Amino acid sequence: MVVQAEGPAETPGRLSNADLAPTTAAQATWRTWDIFCLWMTSAHSLGSYGFAVGMLALGLTGWQTLLALFTGVLVLWAGSNLIGVAGQRVGVPFPVFARATFGVFGANIPALLRGLVAIFWYGIQTYLASTAVIVLLLRLDPGLRSWTEPTFLGLHALGWAAFLSLWTVQLVILNYGMEVVRKVSDVAGPVVWIGMIALAIWMLDGVGWSIDFGARAGAPLSAGSAVLAFTGVVFLMVAFMAGPLVNYADFARFAPSRRAILRGNALGIPFNETAFVVISIIISLTALKKYGSAMTDPVALVADIDSDAIVVVAAILFAIATVGINVVLNFVSPSYDISNVAPKYISFRTGGIITALLSVAVLPWKIWGNEAAIVYFLGGVGALMGPVFGILVVDYYLLRRQHTDTTDLYSESTGGAYYYTRGFNPAALISLGISGAAAVAIALLPWAQSMTALSWPTGAVLGGALMYALGRGRRGASRAAPS
């Protein structure tokens, strides 16, 4: 059997459906190139560009920011290997994989937390892609400006048309299943490179092909402050990708071998993500020189280009890439996570429809324009991804020693290995509660603002340590109990 899932492929019952069942050999089609494109697609977004450029505002120079982001990429790479290898070996999606740690019912807690963040970001990314479409439409037909007033629920008619068009395209893609998602990822990842390289060339030409990597967007920092800012950028980079990292099993399960995962990760993360960071910083430093500020929105830069042809091509490329990114990062995860709540009634496709509807209901353009909503709600929930990561990794590698009984992942029997206490694992939930509270406090409380960037590593380390202590004690008690 190509995929090393331990247990039978047939898993009837209330906890399973065809989408949540273990991966079969025939479904293991995500090879090294596909994994590489998956991470390429994950990195190549308007949000990723904005994040990388935003790090310059912390006061580091261009080269210091590059080095810090690269360090963060290496941490992300290590984490992806841990989750990816485990996901490929067990061969099940993230919410099912989490059942071994949190219990067959308890897994819904981390799954829905991850799904909730993804739903909001799905709507936000769709909105950001629609802004590229609007730039394209206005350049082709300036008369469409009459559609930009008035607004309904905060969005004008042209915005609604662009948003709902992209929303529909993504829903159609997901309706065809994970094999089509793989093909979209293979296209979307490379496509954005064309747009980013073209934009970099145009920007460099505009400043005489000369940039200063010693430039900074913020005020100069003292040595101590620079170290703190550097450390902050490292872990903010990891936190930015914390969601996709946690649910990586959703994709790793389709890889035919451990080698495909490791090689795809190596090409897609330290190699490709570093390259994307470099080109993002180059574009931002040229913008700093040309406009006096490091512009965080590449669409705004594209809109400033004199050539209609270049604007049209760039806008199309950004829109296509963002759609692909959104499907991979923010559509697949909640589709599985929602399906896991009631597998008998909710399929992967039905979960996708629910995700799509919720993404409109939250009015993502209002959230994107509200810094408090981004920081306090999405930042707070997102901070919980560190504890989830630490708990999963410690349980799989240190407590269970890479052993998973796949059959029991779908068993409601009180004697099942992952039934624990009424379907919930107290050790994992206590660990998540304590470490999650610490991570959220560091992320959000005013007195902890200087440590905000340490939310992810604090949550991951504390969650893992608590899981090891509590889980080891439970294992010992289980061995001592009479049979």
From TrEMBL:
<feature type="transmembrane region" description="Helical">
    <location>
        <begin position="267"/>
        <end position="289"/>
    </location>
</feature>
<dbReference type="GO" id="GO:0005886">
    <property type="term" value="C:plasma membrane"/>
</dbReference>
<dbReference type="InterPro" id="IPR045225">
    <property type="entry name" value="Uracil/uridine/allantoin_perm"/>
</dbReference>
<feature type="transmembrane region" description="Helical">
    <location>
        <begin position="309"/>
        <end position="333"/>
    </location>
</feature>
<feature type="transmembrane region" description="Helical">
    <location>
        <begin position="427"/>
        <end position="448"/>
    </location>
</feature>
<feature type="transmembrane region" description="Helical">
    <location>
        <begin position="116"/>
        <end position="138"/>
    </location>
</feature>
<feature type="transmembrane region" description="Helical">
    <location>
        <begin position="223"/>
        <end position="246"/>
    </location>
</feature>
<keyword id="KW-1133">Transmembrane helix</keyword>
<keyword id="KW-0472">Membrane</keyword>
<comment type="similarity">
    <text>Belongs to the purine-cytosine permease (2.A.39) family.</text>
</comment>
<keyword id="KW-0812">Transmembrane</keyword>
<dbReference type="GO" id="GO:0015205">
    <property type="term" value="F:nucleobase transmembrane transporter activity"/>
</dbReference>
<feature type="transmembrane region" description="Helical">
    <location>
        <begin position="345"/>
        <end position="368"/>
    </location>
</feature>
<feature type="transmembrane region" description="Helical">
    <location>
        <begin position="374"/>
        <end position="399"/>
    </location>
</feature>
<dbReference type="InterPro" id="IPR001248">
    <property type="entry name" value="Pur-cyt_permease"/>
</dbReference>
<dbReference type="Pfam" id="PF02133">
    <property type="entry name" value="Transp_cyt_pur"/>
</dbReference>
<protein>
    <submittedName>
        <fullName>Putative allantoin permease</fullName>
    </submittedName>
</protein>
<feature type="transmembrane region" description="Helical">
    <location>
        <begin position="158"/>
        <end position="178"/>
    </location>
</feature>
<feature type="transmembrane region" description="Helical">
    <location>
        <begin position="454"/>
        <end position="471"/>
    </location>
</feature>
<feature type="transmembrane region" description="Helical">
    <location>
        <begin position="190"/>
        <end position="211"/>
    </location>
</feature>
<feature type="transmembrane region" description="Helical">
    <location>
        <begin position="49"/>
        <end position="78"/>
    </location>
</feature>
